Amino acid sequence: MKYVIVGASAAGAQAAEDLRKLDPEADIQIITEESGPPYSRCMISRLADGRLRESELYFKTAHFAEDRRLRYVSGVRVERINAASRNVVCSNGETVAYDELLLATGSRPWIPDIPGRELDGVISFHSLKDAKAIAARAETARTAAVIGAGFAGLEAAYALARRGIQTTVVERCGQILPNQLDAQGAAIIQRDLERMGVRIVLNQSVAGILGPGRATGVALADKPHVQADLVVVATGTEPNKELAQQAGFETGRGIRVSDRLQTSAPHVYAAGDAIEIDDATTGRRMPSATWFNAVLQGKFAAFNMAGRARVYSGAIGIQNAVQFHRVPAISFGQVLVPNESRENVEVLSQTEGDAVYKKLVLKNGRIVGLVFVGDIQKSGFYGALIRHQVDVSRYRHKLLDRDFSYAVFAGGPQFGQRSPYRNLAGLAS
pTM (2 decimals)? Predict the structure, then answer.
């Protein structure tokens, strides 16, 4: 059997590892545009601010492929899929045949059409290459501007501030983390970042990046320009679906897959940031750029590619855990509820001073989302309640009590901890 995997991050590397366990004699080849061993994108801010060396970002060893008898082709782009003849055409001119193919092509930065985005000193914040570029610029930069206040933008701002660079974050919405937290939770993190010297400008669009030749600042719509020797653009990501799209596979916002992670083409699977998933808390299809989901999808894809059918279901699209400075935060599930979806929805919240905030979103008696800021203890327990879709209506009055725990459900027929790996029983060791 010949397996080909395109991409070597969380989903691709995990799929390769599990395929080797499932099919010890198979020919397994990974093709990736990146150079070097697989690394954690979640940790690149720690390289940018000097806390980690490049080698400490690797989540697989340098001999990962050798130990598992994988063919690991790095620095090569897959340019075309020929589904009818079951092969892929690579940028090095090689045509690689497959019996089963996995697209773990990930995502890329979404860069808005901002005048000046091509100037020297304008860097995105998505890859190891980006982190290295920011670290190099930070050696001489005195001021920096970060466009976008999502998790990536704030990670970049925190890294720059740790280096002693005067940093300004510009966000077009009225709060930081607009897609992850509500305003009350976001305000706690904003205050913490501001205490360490990060300036945050809200409700402002970027009119352009100033030059010429090299970035010198950011022009705002109706406020004075922000001086910046370095400009980081962190305005979101988009799935790398083009390879599948060009091959005629079904795509939407990402690559569309079945509950076995198969694309619309036979013998072709997809996993990770490139795909759309059915979110268990909203019922909607959406891309899900989370490390946890990508690893899990890689495992499920491996089983299905190896002919051991496994259904991937119950996924939660929004799963974020972060700590920029002193304040940890977690958001999980349906955190932001639009007005038109508020029927049978209830929001419970609790604060402790101005540093701790907890929020649960309930729909039809079941928890569908949570935000914990400042104190994230037991967030895993509440996450299990969400994943298992437990009816908690009888416990509504005590859901945020300190003593509310698994013990409440002891002996009950409706709830037990349910592992997301439950459909992968029988994995060879």
Answer: 0.91
